[in-house]
Design brief:
The protein is of the alpha+beta class and about 350 residues long. Helix content is about 30%, strand content about 20%. The protein has a 6-stranded mixed beta sheet with strand order 5-6-1-2-10-13, with no helix packed on it. A hairpin with a 2-residue loop joins strand 1 and strand 2. Helix 8 crosses helix 9.
Length: about 350
């Protein structure tokens, strides 16, 4: 090509111009992007504050593991709604306590009471635990009795899925159970609440009427000496509830008085009298059988068992007062139930 002549602009020339037109700053950015990222300096983590947990007491859950006999199923959650403290029961097993070093059988119960808590009046089920120090179980039976039930039942507790089972203190729970020498036995129930819907109402109600049974052959039962009978007569007007004493009451006069008070209709007079006579015969027979059973039990009893009965004592434990629970100091009672009678000591 001659000097001064124009040439056609090529694609290569265009590319070179565009490259030259890119600012130096953009070039630097491109170079920086291709460099490996710089590692950040590790941040030294601060030490977390240590958390402290209060150690569980060795027998802290003892009272909760004991089945509260006779409590309605739908009330059980309310019993455990308060953080009840039974440290007095736990301390009783320590050196110097009334239960220390002894084989002990424990059963629970609840007592409905109206109490004041945080300026409110509440009807609550107060839990209580009865302790029976004894070399043998106080009984393997359960009594079923209520005002509504005319007949009293004394049945093996296993029929109600109850039994005495060993309680294992917290410090021994890592040990082999079969090697432990158990000193604490609790009355337990294996009836699952989830399975109640499959039971008949009568069966469910039986649990509410259960009472731990106890019979001391050295102590004559008050019922053996009693001359009274409980009468529940299905009258046409309304059921008649009364007590008849076969030594103090004269049946004819007793019946006439009920008619005068419009409790009994005239045409049911003879039926009522026969009903009372039958109840008197049943009660006298039961008293005779009880006396005979007591005599036989004493004859067959070993000397060791006799000594155990002679020194037998019942201890009734209530929860101790805490800011989280109602004050129950004014509602504590020594009475346990109609079979055990009164506790020798209330703690």
């Amino acid at each position: 090509m001659r000097k001064g002549a124009k040439r056609k602009r090529s694609q290569k020339d265009n590319n070179e111009d565009e490259a030259a037109a890119v600012p130096a700053q953009d070039n630097r950015k491109t170079t920086e992007l291709t460099k490996p990222p710089t590692r950040a300096k590790p941040v030294k983590a601060s030490k977390p504050e240590p958390e402290y947990y209060e150690d569980k007491r060795n027998l802290e859950d003892l009272w909760k593991d004991i089945f509260p006999v006779g409590t309605e199923w739908d009330q059980l959650d309310k019993v455990y709604g308060f953080n009840w403290n039974f440290s007095n029961l736990e301390n009783a097993f320590e050196e110097g306590g009334v239960l220390h070093g002894r084989k002990v059988y424990l059963f629970g119960c609840t007592e409905p009471q109206l109490v004041t808590f945080k300026d409110d009046s509440l009807l609550i089920h107060i839990p209580a635990v009865v302790a029976v120090p004894s070399p043998f179980p106080p009984s393997d039976k359960i009594g079923i009795k209520s005002v509504q039930r005319e007949v009293e039942e004394i049945i093996p507790m296993k029929q109600m899925k109850m039994d005495w089972v060993p309680y294992i203190p917290l410090e021994n729970r890592e040990s082999q159970v079969d090697r432990l020498r158990h000193q604490i036995f609790i009355l337990s129930c294996t009836q699952r609440r989830a399975a109640l819907k499959h039971l008949k109402i009568e069966r469910i109600k039986k649990y509410e009427y259960c009472l731990p049974y106890f019979y001391n052959p050295f102590k004559e039962d008050d019922l053996e000496q009693s001359t009274e009978v409980q009468i529940i007569f299905p009258s046409e007007l309304k059921p008649i509830f009364c007590e008849f004493d076969w030594e103090l009451d004269e049946l004819e006069e007793f019946t006439d008085k009920l008619i005068q008070e419009d409790e009994l209709s005239e045409d049911q007079k003879d039926a009522f009298k026969e009903f009372v006579k039958e109840k008197v015969r049943e009660t006298k027979k039961a008293n005779r059988e009880a006396r005979e059973a007591r005599r036989k039990a004493l004859e067959e009893m070993s000397e060791e068992t006799k000594r155990a009965f002679e020194v037998l004592r019942f201890y009734k434990f209530y929860p101790v007062q805490t800011p989280d629970t109602p004050d129950i100091s004014n509602v504590k009672a020594s009475f346990i139930n109609r079979y055990y009678g009164k506790a020798h000591e209330v703690l």
